[in-house]
Structure formats: C-alpha cells, structure tokens
Design brief:
The complex is a heterodimer of chains A (199) and B (284). Chain A is of the alpha+beta class. Chain A has a domain at 5-43 and 56-74 and 127-184: Alpha-Beta Plaits. Chain A is built from 6 helices and 11 strands. In chain A, β3 and β4 form a beta hairpin. The model of chain A is unreliable at 194-199 (pLDDT under 50). In chain B, α1 (6-28) packs antiparallel against α3. Chain B has helices at 6-28, 35-39, 42-59, 77-101, 106-132, 142-165, 176-201, 206-216, 220-246, 253-277. The chains are: A alpha+beta (199), B mainly alpha (284). Chains A and B meet through α2 and α3 of A and α4 of B.
Chain lengths: 199, 284
C-alpha cells in the first residue's frame, strides 16, 4: 500500500455540535437512522474514596467517529462477496454496491458501527472518506464542516508525527481488534478510568 | 428479539437439526441392510435443509447477488458456510440416491455417509465461527461452537429416538438404550456450553456483562425455561420411554416420543431466540 489515510479528531475541544455528522448525512443523502459519521457522548466516573473523603470525578466528552479505514478491517474480512474492500492506493475501505448482498455481516463485525444498512436498497453503505471530493482536491465534508476545525485528515504517519493522539480511549473499542486509522486528542478522563485503573 | 433475526434462527436450527439427524440416523442404520430401514429420516433431513436454506435467503437484503457469496473463502466464514451448506446438500442427495437405488455394498454407502457426516459437522463448526467473528462479545467464545454441536446432537438423538419409538406395530424398536446414552451426553455437552458461557460473560467486558444482566433479568424466565425443557426431554422423558419399552409397556411410547421431540425442539428454539435477543455489540 502506497499510503494510508486516516482521521485525527481533537476531542478535547469538541463541543458536540454535530455539524460534522449533519454535513456527512446531508452529503450522503442518508435516511433517518443511518449515519456515516456520528457524534456520541461518553460519560464516566462516579464517587471515589480519597483518604477519608468521597469525591466525585464524573467526566463526559464527545467522540466524533466514522469509518476508521482500519489496517485490519473486520468488515472486509467477513464480507462473503468481496463487496467490502480496502483500496490499495490509499487504504480507504469502500463498498462495491454492485456486489453487496445485504447480509449485514459487516454491520455485525465492525466495532465502530461504520457500515450502515439501508433497508430501501437492501444493501450496506459507509463512509468512503469523500473519495470523490479527495479526487477533486477537496477535503472530506466533515473536515470542512467542523466550526472549530477539530477534524483533520491525511496520511496517518504524518498525522501521528504532527498531531499525535490515540484510538485507545474509553468509549471506543480496543484498537487491537481492527487497528483503526483514527487518532484522538483525548479529553480528560478518556485514558485512565476515573473509577480507577487504566483503560 | 429483532424480527430480522428470524430467518437466521430458522436457518441455524434447521441445518443443525438436519446434520444431527443425519449423523445419528446413519449411526443407527450402520448395520441395517433393509432399504426401508436405511431410508429412515433421509427425507426429513432434506426437508429441514431446504427449509433452512429458503429461510436464509430471506435474511439477505439483495439476494440477487447471492451467487457472489462464495467468492471470499480466504477470510469470510459466511462464504465458507455457504460452500459447506451446498456441499452438505449435494452429499445428502447422493446418499439419498444410493439408499433408494440400493447402489453398491452397504459398506460403500456407509462410507459415503461418513463423508456426508463430516461435511455436516464441518458446517456446524463454520456456522459457529460466523458468530464468533462478530463484535458481540457474548458470541466470541468457544461455548458458541460447543452449543451449536450440542443442539445438533440433542435434536438428532431426540428425533431418531422418537422415530424409532413410533415404528409400525410388530416392529421392535432398536438402539433405544444407545440413543438414551447419546441424548444424555449431548445434554451434558449443552449444559457445559451454557455454564461456560455464563462464566465467560462475567469476565469479558461491559458488553458481555450487559448480556449476562439481560439473561439474569428480563430474559431469566426464558433462560430457565430452556434449561428445564431440554433437561425434561433428554434426562426424564427419553429414559422414561426407554424404561417403558424395556418393561414392554409399548402403548405409551408414541406419546412419550412426541413429548420428547416437543420438549427438546422447543427448548432449543427458546435457547436460540435468547442467543440473538441478548447480544450486545461493542460500539458507540
């Protein structure tokens, strides 16, 4: 593979406005119940004992997640027709609608809820990294839409060098499952559990 | 339960039953030479297989692409399942023709039955691996495979036992004691699957814990009903029927045979509905 594209999301500053989610849904013209990018709230924490006192360390933060175009995509592995495939030139995971049988194996396999079943078509759709926009030299709509410019995209190695981040945050699946090309600037409480113990 | 799971419930139960009945009936027919004896249960196996396959197509959103589903054998357990389902169907059909035409020696037909049985048992394994390759932690455990084999074995022994009990007047039921032992072994295997799954759910993360909470809470009645039904069928009714036969009290055998099949099949159906209804996915 010549390169691997990925997303970086600065969740530490995300206000949960969902503009990225709406822009994506609008571009893909999705029906109610289908989202290629979704913004979800993760809540954690509680009362913990410190010395003789009980203190609250409740935390909540927003995670904006789409397909992570994983290095080991579970959706591609389980697809019986080969409709779900990973492009060699940029690592984007795409669905060939002409081959999809609508078995939803990919929906069951993806720990990020990226493949979305469209009951009207009887087929699955998902984030394609706005491949048509990339081909025209534009940015993915979620990147363009974020009013705080918290979503970045590019070659994952460059994102790692320039922005860092991790996919190993509470609220997301363990990244060892599929090796997602997602990096998050983690909000407070997203790495170590307020309830005690590392993630 | 999601209504869209119904085709998969029917498919998995029908195909596992077909495999179980085929394997057990061929074992019982091993030393038989008479055509009528060797043909027993063959049509039932085929009927269950056809019913399961028809149900499975209802799960596909766009079945017109079904011909492409065998093209990812390298990594897709579903592709492998479809290949093995077709293979089992073809092998069963050849077995049926062999027995109907009484083609070749009994040993040759037994040899083909072994091959068909191995394909069927392979199908059950592959079927379980589809579920173990998902993002539902409750399914990602070896107990899924053990449970699927136990379902095939329980329904297989129960149906063949019942069929042998309902033979025509004058025919002496054969092999009932072996079937009772087989049924108890399959029941023990199913209980091992249920117990090991319960232990696993307690240590496999928050989603598995949610499944455990569902099984202990809103679905507890169904959970225990399933256990009681299969135990009543395989550990009480089947030995009771065998005892009645040993005491030559054969008039009650048909009734007990019907009760046995009803208890085991309904128990396994409830278990399969629970399997789907209590899954909790890793996700957002």
């Amino acid at each position: 593979m010549s390169k691997q594209l990925g997303f970086h999301v600065n969740s530490a500053n995300c206000a949960g406005c969902k503009t990225c989610q709406i822009a994506c849904k609008d571009r893909a013209n999705l029906e109610v119940g289908q989202l290629f990018r979704k913004v979800v709230k993760h809540e954690d924490g509680g009362w913990v004992k410190q010395g003789s006192a009980w203190v609250s360390n409740v935390t909540a933060y927003w995670l904006s997640v789409s397909c992570n175009h994983c290095d080991n995509p579970a959706c591609v592995n389980v697809c019986p027709t080969g409709a779900m495939h990973k492009r060699a030139e940029d690592g984007i995971v795409m669905v060939d609608q002409d081959r999809c049988v609508g078995c939803q194996s990919c929906v069951w396999a993806c720990p990020y809820d990226a493949p979305q079943y469209n009951p009207d078509l009887g087929k699955v759709g998902k984030c394609d990294f706005c491949a048509d926009r990339l081909a025209d030299g534009k940015r993915p709509v979620c990147v363009d839409a974020c009013p705080f410019q918290l979503i970045s995209f590019g070659e994952i190695e460059k994102l790692d060098q320039e922005k860092g981040g991790t996919a190993n945050v509470k609220g997301l699946a363990n990244p060892s499952r599929t090796k997602p090309n997602l990096r998050i600037n983690p909000p407070k409480g997203a790495i170590s559990s307020p309830m005690g113990g590392e993630r | 339960m999601n209504i869209h799971d119904l085709p998969l419930i029917i498919y998995t139960l029908c195909l596992q039953s077909a495999v179980g009945i085929y394997v057990v009936s061929r074992m019982m027919a091993w030393t038989q030479t008479e055509k009528a004896q060797r043909m027993r249960f063959m049509w039932l196996v085929g009927g269950l297989g056809v019913a399961g396959v028809i149900a499975s197509t209802l799960h596909m959103g766009y079945p017109w692409n079904a011909a492409l589903t065998m093209t990812n054998l390298g990594t897709s357990w579903l592709s492998r399942e479809i290949v093995l389902t077709v293979s089992f169907g073809v092998a069963w059909l050849i077995s049926l023709v062999f027995e109907r035409q009484e083609a070749g020696k009994v040993e040759t037909r037994n040899g083909w039955a072994i091959l068909t049985s191995l394909i069927g048992l392979g199908l059950v394994f592959v079927m379980s691996m589809i579920y173990r390759s998902t993002a539902f932690p409750a399914w990602e455990h070896g107990s899924t495979t053990v449970g699927f084999y136990a379902t095939a074995g329980l329904i297989g022994t129960a149906v063949v036992f019942a069929g042998n009990c309902r033979k025509k007047a004058g025919e002496e039921p054969k092999g009932l004691s072996a079937l009772v032992i087989g049924g108890l072994a399959m029941l023990a295997l199913q209980m091992v699957a249920v117990a090991s799954n319960g232990v696993y759910l307690g240590s496999a993360g928050p989603e598995a814990a949610e499944t455990a909470a569902l099984l202990a809470g809103p679905y507890a009645v169904f959970y225990w009903a399933r256990v009681i039904l299969v135990v009543a069928g395989a550990a009480i009714v089947m030995p009771l029927a065998w005892r009645r036969w040993a005491q030559q009290k054969v008039t009650s055998l048909p009734g007990l045979a019907g009760a046995l099949v009803a208890l085991v099949v309904v128990g396994e159906l409830v278990g399969r509905v629970l399997f789907y209804a209590t899954r909790v996915k890793i996700g957002l």
